[in-house]
Amino acid sequence: MVVGLCLLGMANAALAQSTSTSEDDDLKRIPPAAEVAPSPSSSTSQRFSEQRIRIEDAFTGWDNQTLVIPTPAAQPSWQNRLSLDADIKLPLANAWTFGFSDRLNVFAGSLLSAVSRANAQNDLREIYLSDELVPRTYIEAGRVNLKEGIAYGYNPTDFFKTRSAVQLSSIDPSAARESRLGVVMIKAQRLFDGGSITAAYAPRLTDTAPIPTSALASFDPGWGRTNADGRGLLSVSWNGSAFNPQLLAFHDAIGTHWGGSLSRVLNAGTVAYLEWSGVREPSLTARALAFGERTGALPAGLSVIEHVSGRKPFSNDLSIGASWTSAFNLTLNVEYHYHESGLSGPEFSRISEQGANNTRSASQFWYVRQYAADQQEPLTRREFFLRADWQDVIPSTLNLGAIAFVAENDGSGLAQMYAQYFPSRNWTISAYVGTTIGPKTSVFGSLPWRVSGVVQVVRYL
After folding, report:
1. 78-91 and 195-202 strand pairing
2. Residue range 354-390, pLDDT digits in tens
3. Which residues neighbour 405 within 8 Å (Cβ) at sequence distance 6 or greater?
4. In order of start, what are the domains of the chain with their CATH numbers?
5. What is the pTM of this model?
6. Who is most buried in 110, 214, 225, 459, counting CB within 10 A?
7. What is the pLDDT of residues 137-193, one digit of tens each?
8. What is the spatial distance between Cα 275 and Cα 220, in angstroms, rounded to a whole number?
9. Cα distances (angstroms) measured from residue 6 to each of 155, 173, 288, 290
């Protein structure tokens, strides 16, 4: 029912709840050191509890179009999400800290029955304990949102992002990193002068869950999405040079991924950055069809759009871009994304044509797109990402911005503009207007909707 919802942020499949990222937030991601750790403290009295509790209502409407490639299910014309959202950090004895992040949702919509228990969903994002074992050495255990990478539109080294997205209002992937399902893991971090070393291990807890066909009626914590395979990460960052390098090694069921990033402050307002990862893996289409067969979503041995091969060529992923911030709080980002295992222009044209002419091919076409969204990786091989974020257009009252993804092979695009109004410290009112650009057989023009709109009201408690 919610193919349209699953595909809303398909350009990177990384939706975000807020695009209110300030100049300081942009610069915090350069250099790419490990996450900012709390100041060393051996006394609970020197630490403070943090809590953010809010009620959010987000109403979304879609202007759906007649499709050349039919979707397997009907598309909604509107949906309302009412949420209770909590982020809590509580100091415990002996320098331990308890962290908890959760969102309880109740949905209504054009394709849903009256509001009932079946329309509820819970997103358990984080629950963990952390401790400073010795000065400048930290450990966390539980469900943790571990973020890596310095780019904004697509992070090749953010390895734990796969299968973690939750339904949100904006398509800004930079902010989406802040609101997603964490991964059950144990993580250790050592800070030293000029850098850090981070190691994390996420165990396998259960069998692989299929891609959800609906975002509703689920209190499942999602272990089958985030902890269906054992995974490990080791990263080293160094801030003592002009390029602030970071090196990463990550191992999962696919194999060993290698990654790295560099950044350089060019002047007071401009930062250039590069982020890369590489691994031997099948193409996106082959992985999607194999996953669908393994989880029962697709009939085994009946792949139409591409033969599932065991060949594993080395695949590179790259984000290269720059961020510029003006004296009046306007931040601009321009990025180029290269996703070697994604679909080339001719490959997308071929499976689009097959999907338009065959019902089974159409089903597999949309499944590949859902798989890319679920993995939070680009669908196509090359794309551009543009972002403008203008904070304090009216000081402490109004923010404005816009985001766009552009497919290089056909020039189609997915764009969203937004405005955020702050009538008081306890209220935020936001509006998002999105559009797809391009022919009905193009990467983004083939999405089920032409125009979307969101009105979001947040009350902070």
Report:
1. unpaired
2. 899 888 889 999 999 999 999 999 999 999 999 999 9
3. 11, 12, 153, 171, 383, 384, 385, 413, 414, 415, 444
4. 3-460 (2.40.160.10)
5. 0.88
6. 225
7. 999 999 999 999 999 999 999 999 999 999 899 999 987 899 999 999 999 999 999
8. 34
9. 20, 14, 15, 20
